[in-house]
């Protein structure tokens, strides 16, 4: 959503003139007190350059040009050593926090659906010393139950303190941890557990009852299930060969003197730390083999881009810990003495779906300083705030737009607008607690409009990151001082990036104005390939110097200052009947800014000459529009109404024209989906990436209809 304000009104507006006068009066002291000049110089400097002088690279960060970084703290070359180092430094300080559940209530919606609402208390904290003791007892308990060093152990659980405690216990005793997304379907979970051959599984009672119980007869290796909740479960209906324990019972077992004395076999840097199963956006999930030194190197690169990381920071953990972005972010925070408060997408803010009206969401109570988010969540925040702006009175809306545009101009010049921050954006900031000093976006490209919105309204830098599970989430991250948008920054100090020509797609290192090509990442953070799937390892290779590389399948462009921009993905490119190439990802990213669209999947057949789309509409906006058109029916009927399809197509064309999409890139037909796409529906991954195969199958009848039966 873009603001269109009468420039004549802006020039002569007393409010706008006041802002400029304030800027003029405060500019000099503010400029020096905030190091604005230094930040601007940092933003414009060369950040990475080619080691060969060639346009294709490889490109390295100028700060670590001669050698790639491998570890942050000398001698701390495995994950167990990293946490012990943190315990020695921050023992009594808060480490992991969980909110107490005071009450649960069922709330019936007008549609008849029942939603569980929570009333939550304050955060209860475990110190680094307390977490260290729990880890010791849990590790001993798992060993007493027969878990062997270098034998895999699986975790299938939601993001919570017990997840990270389990991971640290496994790292300490050299139990390779197999991670599975909590939203994976039964078939994918069964596939992963059978492939890894784990004998022990950590999970929650909810997942045990709803997803695991029915597939346990298929689990031929599983002997022990440990559930993390302080609940009792009925043992009937489970296979006889599987023992079920509470996490508390395993800790108590491990605290016994005989079990505490079980020898701890510490890992080597080259030992397997994690087998991380991807969320399966294309077919069955793949297990990525990550050794300790891979993660140490990747986190070294990530932490270098977060200035001032330390004990004064509070991080809010709510993204899936089975995703490399969240796992490395949390381990990095623990390494530097930050405290981590746990949350979930359903309890994050005061307006979240599981928070009872009038109660406080997790951000309001925790008031975090650091936060990671995927673009889907940021887009949701952006649209919610902008919808509220539209509901303001004319005067309030005009003041907000003036302040927004004024600060936008300041940010584009590398400056800030303290008066706007104080008077206009304080309430918006409060939605995330009011203390956020930096946000990190990963998982997918973030639109320029959403990035600017977060910069302006939440008054903090948004670092876009680029990386994959196969590179430990490390690749590039924008620097705090970089006020550009649409880019993902320069290579981290732990890796280098080069481009490979993709002639068929029209991307080469000789492209003007900047070299382009398929992105390859090399360095000590590149993982060891796919677990028991050597036939899939073609995208990994080792160069003459012994360095590992991974070919990402993404297409990038290197700017003159060495920063990377993601411009395409090979799998998202479709050649139309007339020969034009359409980037489906580019179309989706552009059209997500349409106020009527909550989510969108573009689709094209190579034997057709036009693009179609599937859209999850913004229910509030489309319902208002339907009522204006005299359509007062149930939500599902609104989505199936031809007139509403036309309205959404009209809005799509307006947005497409404003951002200058090519004619052949603009969807000409649309199918509206009344149900949102969530990881639970199986249509998107846990990082909210589209599962194109599943979406195609789901909308197959509509595809045939929109393509005239072909």
Automatic annotation (TrEMBL):
The chain crosses the membrane at residues 9-32. SUPFAM superfamilies: Acetyl-CoA synthetase-like. Gene3D superfamilies: 3.30.300.30, N-terminal domain of ligase-like. InterPro entries: AMP-bd_C_sf (IPR045851), AMP-binding_CS (IPR020845), AMP-dep_synth/lig_dom (IPR000873), ANL_N_sf (IPR042099). One of its GO terms (molecular function) is arachidonate-CoA ligase activity. GO terms for biological process: long-chain fatty-acyl-CoA metabolic process; neuron differentiation. It catalyses: a long-chain fatty acid + ATP + CoA = a long-chain fatty acyl-CoA + AMP + diphosphate. Signal peptide: none annotated. Keywords: Fatty acid metabolism, Ligase, Lipid metabolism, Membrane, Transmembrane, Transmembrane helix. One of its GO terms (cellular component) is plasma membrane. Belongs to the ATP-dependent AMP-binding enzyme family. This is long-chain-fatty-acid--CoA ligase. It comes from Salmo trutta (Brown trout).
């Amino acid at each position: 959503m873009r603001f269109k304000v009468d420039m004549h009104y802006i020039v002569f507006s007393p409010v706008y003139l006041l802002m400029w006068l304030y800027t003029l009066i405060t500019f000099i002291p503010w400029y020096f007190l905030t190091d604005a000049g230094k930040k601007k110089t940092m933003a414009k400097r060369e950040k990475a350059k080619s080691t060969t002088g060639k346009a294709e690279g490889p490109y390295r960060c100028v700060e670590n040009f001669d050698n790639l970084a491998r570890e942050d703290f000398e001698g701390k070359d495995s994950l167990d050593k990293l946490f012990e180092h943190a315990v020695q430094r921050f023992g009594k300080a808060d480490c992991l926090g969980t909110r107490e559940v005071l009450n649960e209530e069922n709330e019936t919606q007008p549609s008849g659906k029942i939603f569980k609402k929570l009333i939550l208390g304050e955060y209860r904290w475990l110190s680094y010393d307390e977490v260290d003791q729990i880890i010791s007892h849990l590790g001993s308990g798992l060993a007493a139950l027969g878990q062997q060093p270098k034998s895999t152990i699986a975790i299938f659980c939601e993001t919570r303190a017990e997840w990270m405690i389990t991971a640290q216990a496994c790292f300490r005793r050299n139990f390779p941890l197999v991670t599975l997304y909590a939203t994976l379907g039964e078939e994918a979970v069964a596939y992963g557990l059978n492939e890894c051959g784990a004998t022990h599984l950590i999970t929650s009672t909810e997942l045990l009852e709803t997803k695991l119980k029915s597939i346990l007869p298929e689990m031929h290796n599983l002997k022990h299930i440990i559930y993390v909740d302080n609940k009792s479960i009925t043992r009937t209906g489970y296979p006889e060969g599987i023992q079920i324990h509470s996490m508390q019972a395993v800790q108590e077992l491990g605290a016994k003197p005989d079990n505490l004395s079980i020898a701890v076999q510490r890992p080597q840097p080259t030992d397997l730390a994690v087998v991380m199963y991807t969320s399966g956006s294309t077919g069955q999930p793949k297990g990525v083999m990550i050794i300790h030194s891979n993660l140490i190197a990747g986190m070294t690169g990530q932490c270098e881009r977060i200035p001032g990381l330390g004990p004064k920071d509070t991080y809010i953990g709510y993204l899936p810990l089975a995703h490399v972005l969240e796992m490395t972010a949390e381990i990095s925070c623990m390494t530097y003495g930050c405290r981590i408060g746990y949350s979930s997408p359903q309890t994050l803010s005061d307006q979240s779906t599981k928070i009872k009206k009038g109660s406080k969401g997790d951000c309001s109570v925790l008031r975090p300083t650091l936060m990671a988010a995927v673009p889907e969540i940021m887009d949701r925040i952006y649209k919610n705030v902008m919808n509220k702006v539209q509901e303001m009175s004319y005067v309030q809306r005009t003041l907000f737009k003036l302040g927004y545009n004024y600060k936008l101009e300041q940010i584009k010049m590398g400056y800030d607008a303290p008066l706007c921050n104080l008077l206009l954006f304080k309430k918006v900031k409060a939605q995330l607690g009011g203390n956020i000093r930096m946000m990190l976006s990963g998982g997918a490209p973030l639109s320029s409009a959403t990035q600017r919105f977060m910069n302006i309204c939440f008054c903090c830098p948004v670092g876009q990151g680029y990386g994959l599970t196969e590179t430990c989430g490390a690749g590039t991250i924008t620097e705090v001082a970089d006020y550009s948008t649409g880019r993902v920054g320069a290579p981290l100090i732990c890796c280098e990036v080069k481009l490979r020509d993709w002639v068929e797609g029209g991307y080469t290192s000789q492209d003007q104005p900047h070299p382009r090509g398929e992105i390859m990442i090399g360095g000590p953070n590149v993982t060891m390939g796919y677990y028991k799937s050597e036939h899939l390892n073609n995208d990994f290779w080792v160069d003459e110097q012994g360095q590992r590389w991974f070919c990402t399948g993404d297409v990038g462009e290197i700017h003159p200052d060495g920063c990377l921009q993601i411009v395409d993905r090979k799998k998202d490119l479709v050649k139309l009947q007339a020969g034009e190439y359409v980037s489906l990802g580019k179309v989706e990213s552009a059209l997500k800014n349409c106020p009527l669209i909550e989510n969108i999947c573009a689709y094209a057949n190579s034997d057709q000459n036009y693009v179609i789309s599937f859209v999850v509409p913004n229910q509030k906006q489309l319902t208002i529009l339907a009522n204006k058109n005299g359509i007062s029916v149930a939500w599902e009927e609104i989505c199936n109404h031809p007139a509403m399809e036309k309205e959404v197509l009209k809005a799509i064309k307006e947005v497409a024209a404003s951002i200058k999409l090519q004619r052949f890139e603009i969807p000409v037909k649309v199918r509206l989906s009344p149900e949102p796409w969530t990881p639970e529906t199986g249509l998107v991954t846990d990082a909210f990436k589209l599962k194109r195969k599943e979406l195609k199958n789901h909308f197959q009848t509509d595809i045939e209809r929109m393509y005239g039966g072909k």
